[in-house]
Write a structure and sequence with these properties.
The chain has 399 residues and is of the alpha+beta class. It has helices at 2-23, 32-44, 137-147, 156-159, 175-178, 321-331, and strands at 51-53, 56-71, 74-87, 91-98, 108-113, 119-123, 135-136, 149-153, 168-174, 186-187, 189-193, 208-219, 224-235, 244-247, 252-255, 261-269, 272-287, 291-297, 301-311, 313-315, 335-346, 351-368, 371-385, 391-392. Strands 11, 12, 14, 15, 17, 18, 20, 22, 23 and 24 form a 10-stranded antiparallel β-sheet that branches. Strands 2, 3, 4, 5 and 6 form a 5-stranded mixed β-sheet that branches. A hairpin with a 2-residue loop joins strand 2 and strand 3. Helix 1 packs antiparallel against helix 2 (32-44).
Amino acid sequence: MKIFKGFFVVAATAAVFTMTSCMDNSLPSLDLVQLANEQEASAQSVKLGEIFESTTYKYVVKASTKVALNIDGSRVATNNVYEGSAGMYSEIKIKAVAIDNGFSRDTIYKTVKLDANGKNIYIDVPKLASKSQTVKVSDAKAQASANGNATITNSNENKHLSYSASTTANLVLTSSALSKIADDKSLAIDVENASTGTITQALETEAVEEKFAVMVVRNGVKGVSLGEDVKLTINNSNFERGMSFTCSANNETKTIEKESEINLNVNKLDDYTISCNVVTRLDEITDDIPSKGLLDVGTGGKRTVTYYTKSGYECDYKSNEFITKYLNAKFGAFTDKAKQTIDIENNEGRASVPYEVNQKVYHYTVIFGSLAIQVKAYGPHTIDINKDAATRYNVNHDL
């Protein structure tokens, strides 16, 4: 109908112009097509009212199992997924406790700075070791007497508990070390994943040096001093050459020399936490390629519309679960569907409104010992809405 309407306007105007021209050839010529287009454009334009940008950022909390989730001191969910919002650039305090059996019941605390919209916040709840492979101390002493030492190893079930990559733990005990342990005890060693709740999720502007736990080694006998150093060896392909780790047993720091293997000295039977050492350095902040589109704005007063930003991080290095563990804890997993809303006053008719989102990109060098990788993380954004170019909604309209 719009095409025919325009045609009649042109035809009628052309007839008048022809008659007038016959009477007075001195009149200037008119661009009738341009006039018709302007009339059509005027008919299609929509005058919008005030625009109200959001003062909050959205975020999503995802846990590896169902948790009782508290944010800023208030219970918000009993689930493994929660969507929330809080003031832009504010800081939220998260507390999570696992509900399901088979997971650690230790409280996990995490701080998140909402310095970008749509943050993905991952709560990694460790699975508890089960089906331990036990050895009686009396049998271990007999083995050590015959062979010079006894080796305590985690069970086959435990090897696949922590990560996709298999984990094997061996604790080698000498006869002298075993003499410190009562015969009625049972020896066992297991490996569990570890929470990264202590890592603050934030876009840091200064270099940050920190440790993050990658695994906890559980001993069946605890609190026994051995009187000497004994060897603890853990094999996992995520122990990559050049990476640096610290063990809580004696605060020993080790750089991985043999691929997939870390060797530690311990002098006490206890639980040990193995942490990875990392330095995160901000190199520069740039602007991402602008994202353009059309907002579909309904009519009837103040209307809420949705657009999307990017959140989290991207990097070319994807093969190491320890590295992914840290980056997820520090920046959140990547998404290009971080939802944001804006309110626009519209009393004239459903409209298509051009917009452009501009977003900051933070470029980091993240160093794990001597292994350095390049990471880019998405920061705050701005949205520019060209309300003067708002037109009546057309499902086939392109920007």
